[in-house]
């Protein structure tokens, strides 16, 4: 099973992501937009693992969320991986109570290491992927300014009330995300 741990974006916030994507698509028509049903903020991607790991991952999420109350994050800026100027992925960075995101992500990483699971050693950057771009696309100064205008809008805060364990299951040439467990923040 392909596992990942993430924060699902509530339905009431998806319209603002749809609006961002629509504006983005007018600027970069070749961008492949992330399906709205797959919009999330990944805390840990584990890749292909034995199905039996599911219960241990649920325990890890419970430990990571211990004494973390619900909190809010707000979309703040547009960036890209590996960089904004030559992106393969465009994403929305968040601001707000991100200290809680860092704490949860670090706790998850520690617990995964304890189980001897491979952990991404790159610095955790809280982000929500909104599009993919192929073929060595380059963002020039004009396009960068237009992306900044999109991000300059004031966005509604996103209320985070749970952490979810997901399965990424093949669905034809794509993948669908199935929720395996939801751990509420209290």
What does this entry look like structurally?
- The protein has 186 residues and is of the alpha+beta class.
- It has one domain (2-184): Cyclic Phosphodiesterase, Chain: A.
- It has four helices and nine strands, in the order βαββαββαβαβββ.
- The protein is globular and about 50 Å long.
Structural topology:
Layout: E1 2-8, H1 11-27, E2 32-33, E3 40-48, H2 54-64, E4 71-81, E5 89-96, H3 98-114, E6 127-132, H4 141-151, E7 158-160, E8 162-171, E9 174-184
Keywords:
five-stranded antiparallel sheet, ligase, Cyclic Phosphodiesterase, Chain: A, alpha+beta, four-stranded antiparallel sheet, 4 helices, 186 residues
Shape: globular
Cα-based radius of gyration, to the nearest Å? 17 Å
Mean pLDDT: 94
Task: Specify the CATH homologous superfamily.
Answer: Cyclic phosphodiesterase
Helix content: 25-40%
How many strands, what sense, and barrel or not for the largest sheet?
A: 5 strands, antiparallel
Q: Give the SSE string.
A: EHEEHEEHEHEEE
Catalytic activity: a 3'-end 2',3'-cyclophospho-ribonucleotide-RNA + H2O = a 3'-end 2'-phospho-ribonucleotide-RNA + H(+)
Organism: Candidatus Daviesbacteria bacterium GW2011_GWF2_38_6
Enzyme class: hydrolase
Motif (HXTX 1): 40-43
